[in-house]
């Protein structure tokens, strides 16, 4: 089993790999918000440029903290939560406003939030301290 990925820029653990993957996904979503025909149906919708900046910015933060040791990578995981939280709140308002199908979208983003929470709690191979955000290294 591969515990760490050897890259020219240094060793990237499983948590870091997830930050790179999700950060890149967030950047692509941000680019798509600008490129696609935008449907401002979310209750808390902001301008496409603002949403795109948030997606791309939080994606870059996640990627930037991918090479930090466990415990120092917390800002990367927290950055991922910004847009997930935005989506959860927006779809919750939509659902409360009577759009029944918004509950599916809400559940989707709650599951993504749970997945990020689980991954943020992973311990890297060889770490002897409990995992979690804010663990000193």
Written description of the protein model:
It is built from four helices and two strands; from the N terminus they run E-E-H-H-H-H. The chain has 137 residues and is mainly α. A hairpin with a 2-residue loop joins strand 1 and strand 2. The mean pLDDT is 83.
Provide the descriptors you would attach to this structure in a database record:
137 residues; mainly alpha; 2 strands; 4 helices
SSE layout and pairings?
Elements: E1 4-7, E2 10-13, H1 14-35, H2 48-64, H3 74-96, H4 102-120
Antiparallel strand pairs: 1-2
Helix pairs in contact: 1-2, 2-3, 3-4
Shape: globular
**Span from first to last CA?**
24 Å
Main β-sheet description:
2 strands, antiparallel
Low-confidence stretches: none
- The beta-strand count equals 2
- Could you say which structural class the secondary elements and strand pairing correspond to? mainly alpha
């Amino acid at each position: 089993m591969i515990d760490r990925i050897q890259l020219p820029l240094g060793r990237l653990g499983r948590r870091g790999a997830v930050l790179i993957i999700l950060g890149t996904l967030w950047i692509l979503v941000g680019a798509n918000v600008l490129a696609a025909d935008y449907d401002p149906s979310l209750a808390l919708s902001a301008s496409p440029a603002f949403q795109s900046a948030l997606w791309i910015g939080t994606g870059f933060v996640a990627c930037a903290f991918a090479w930090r040791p466990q415990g120092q990578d917390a800002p990367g995981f927290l950055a991922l939560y910004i847009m997930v939280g935005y989506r959860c709140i927006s779809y919750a308002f939509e659902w409360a406003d009577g759009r029944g199908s918004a509950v599916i979208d809400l559940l989707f983003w709650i599951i993504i939030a749970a997945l990020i929470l689980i991954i943020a709690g992973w311990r890297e191979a060889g770490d002897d301290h409990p995992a979690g955000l804010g663990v000193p290294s």
